[in-house]
Amino acid sequence: MKRFIVVVLMILAIFNFNELYSQVKGIYIWPVSFYEERGVEKVINSLSRHGITDIFLLTKGEGGYSIYPSSYTYKEFYDNMPMDQRGKNFEERKNFMSDTTLLTQILNTAHAKKIKVHAWFIVSGDKNYVENNPGSEVVQLHKPDTTNYPYPAISRGNINLAYPHYKEYFFNGMKEALKYPFDGVMLDKIRYTTLLYSYDNIHISKAMRSGVNVEKVINCAVETLYETKDDKNLFFQKYRDGDTDICKWIEIKKEDIIDYVIESRKLCREKNIPLSASFMPEGTYDVDFADVHYAQNYEELSEYFDFIAIMAYPKSYGQPSTWVKMVTVNAIEKSSCKIWTAIQCFDSVSAKSVFDQIKNTRIAKADGIAIFRYGTMTDEMWHEFHNGMNYKIDKNINSQIQGIIYNGSGTTINSWIKSMDVMLQTDNIIPILYHQCELQNMNVFKNKKFILIPGGNSGVQAEALEIRGLANIESFVKSGAGYIGICAGAYLAGKGYNNITEKFQIINSIAKDIKHWNRGNGLVDLEIKKIHPIFKDIKSKNFSLNYVSGPVLEPADLKLSKYTELAIFKTDISNNGATPGDMMNKSAIIESKYNKGTILLFSPHPELTKGMESLLINAITYVSKTN
After folding, report:
1. Short-list 268, 258, 325, CA closest to 294
2. CA of 247: how far to CAs of 178, 237, 279, 288, 293, in Å?
3. DSSP-derived 3-state class of residue 591
4. CA–CA separation, 523 vs 407, rounded Å?
5. pLDDT of the residue at 501
C-alpha cells in the first residue's frame, strides 16, 4: 500500500513538472533576426531548446513592408532606403530579406520543431501607406497658441482606421499572407494613438450625423491636453460620468477597432486558426484611460479573440515587477478570452527583471507568457527566464491578498491611483480595479479580501453605485471582508445624509457639520489613541497626514456597535464657513466590526502622504486577516 502511495505521488510530481513545462511560451521576432543570426535553422533550433511553443513573426510592420511577396515587400523597403542609411553589408542584408522563399523556410523549420507561427500584423501603423495616400493619416488636435485648426500628422505613419481604402488594402494583405500555413494571426497596434489624434473629416462627419456637439468635444480635449493641471483629467472624468457627446465620440472610434477585429476573426475562422492581439496594459485597470486614448477595451473586445497578450512592460511604465502581476490578474478578471502576458526583454532591462516578471506572471496564473523580443535576449536573460519558469510559486500564490479598489464615478484619479501604487510596493497585495457597473455583479467580489473606497465625492459615489452596488458591498463586508474608506469612502460608510447614502450605513459614525464639508486642504497632525497593528511602522504617537476635506468623525446613533477611535486630529482646518476648532480632538481614524467584517476609516489620506504609505498596507493586511 505504501509503495502504491509513493508511486502515485511520483506520478503527481511528474504531472506537475510536465504541467509547468507545458505552459505556452511565445516570443515576438522580427524577420531581420534570421539574418543577424545567420540562418533560419539556427534561430529555430535555439527557440526549440528554450521550450518556445509559439512565434509571433512580424509579417507586416509599422513601415508597411511585409515578409511575404506583396505590393510592398522588403525588397522595395531596401530599394527605397536613402543611400546614407544603407550601412554595412547592405546588399547582403537586402538579398537575404528579399528572398521570396524566406517565409516558407521559417514556417517549415518551425513546424518541424512543433513550434506554431502566428502572422504578426501592425494594424494602425503604416508609414508607406500614409506617405502615398493623402488623407489616410490621423489628424492631430491643435495647440491653442499655434493654430485654430487640427492638422494632419503624417510623419509618424499613424493610420486613420476610418479611412475606407486602407481597410481594403490591409485585409487584402492579410488574405495574401494566409495563403501560407500560418498557425494564427496576431493583431498589434489595434488601437488609436492617444486623445491627441482623430479629428479628421470622416470622424467629425460621423459624429455630427449622430448629433454630437463636436465643438464641445474638441474644446474639452484641448482643455485636457493643453490647459492647467486642474483640467488634465477633464475628458476622462466626463467620459467616466457618462457625458453623452464625449461617450458617443469615443464609441465612434471604438466601432473602427471592432470592424477590423471582426473581419480578422472571420478570415481566421475560415482557416480554422486562432486570432490574438497585443493590447496596451492600461485598460486592465484604468478602463476610461484606455477607452479615451486607444478605443481599446478588454471586456468588449475579448469575446472576439482566442487570447490577448498584455504588453506589460514595467520599465517602460516606470513600475515595479509587481505591476505585471496586477495587470495580468485585472486582465483575467475583465476578459472572456485567455490572457497571455508579454514580458519586457528590451530597453536594457536586467536579467533579474526577466526573472521577476516571469515569477509575477506565473503567480497571476496567466494562460501564456510571451517574450518581447528575440533580438534583445541575452544568455543571462535566457538563464533567468528558465529560473523563473522553474521557480516554485505555490507559497507565493497562497500568500496573495486580492482586493477591490473602486475607481468609478465620484472618485478622484489621484486617490485611487496612489492607493494602487502603494499596494504595488508589496509582494502579496493584488488590487483589482472596478467601476460602478461592475460592482452591480456580486460575482466580482468572489475570492476578494477587501474593498477600498478612495477619495472623491461620496454623494456621487453612492449615486453611481446605486442601491444594488451598495448592497453588494454591504453583503461582502458582512460576510467577513474588509472595508477601507479614505476621505469620501469614510463619509460613505457612516450615517447617511441623503436617501441613497442612508441605504448604506455600516459603521456607527457621522460626519460633523457635513454642510461645511469643504473645510480645505493641508497637512494635519494626528495623535494615536490606541496601539494597533496599522501603526506598527510609526515610531511616535504623533504623526502627520495630508488632509483633503475629509469627515470630522463622531459617534452616531445607529443600531450598531460603537467604533474604536484609533487616532484623533490635533490640528484644525476650517475654511469655507466651517467652525474653527471643530476638528480638534475629533476622530480621524476609526475601526469597527460589521458582523464578520472589519471596517477602517481614514479621514486624511495615507496614500497621498510620502513616507506614510505603510499605514495603508498595514490596514489592508489587518482587515484581510481579521475576518
Report:
1. 258
2. 36, 11, 21, 10, 13
3. strand
4. 24
5. 95
Q: Do both 505 and 540 map to the same domain?
A: yes
Query: For the chain, what is the mean pLDDT?
Result: 94
* Lookup result for grid cell 522553474: 390
Q: Please give the residue range of the domain that contains residue 270.
A: 22-134+158-191+257-395
Total count of domains within the chain: 2
Q: Pairing relation of β-strands 509-511 and 553-555? A: antiparallel
Residue 22: pLDDT band with limits 50, 70, 90: very low
Indicate which CATH number applies to the domain containing 314.
3.20.20.80
pLDDT of 3 > 80? The answer is no
Handedness of CA 299, 301, 303, 306 (dihedral sign): negative
Give me the mean pLDDT over the 408-422 stretch.
Answer: 97
Gap between the Cα atoms of 227 and 435, Å rounded:
27
* pLDDT score, position 100: 94
Reading the block at residue 541, the C-alpha cell is 504617537
Count helices and strands in the chain by DSSP H and E runs: 22, 21
Q: What is the DSSP string of 61-93?
A: -TTS-BSSSSSSBHHHHHHTS-GGG--TTHHHH
Last residue of a domain, one of 359, 378, 395: 395
| Whether residue 442 is found in the same domain as residue 354 | no
